[in-house]
Amino acid sequence: MKKKTEALNIHPSIDKRVYRVKNPAFDFFCPLCRMERQVSYRSRLSPMNYLQIGMVSFVLVTLTFAQMEAYALVWPFIVWAGFEGARRLLFKRDVPCPHCGFDATWYKRDVKMARQLVSNFWQNKKNTAEPPKTSHPIR
Question: How far apart are CA 137 and CA 118, in angstroms?
Answer without folding.
Answer: 37
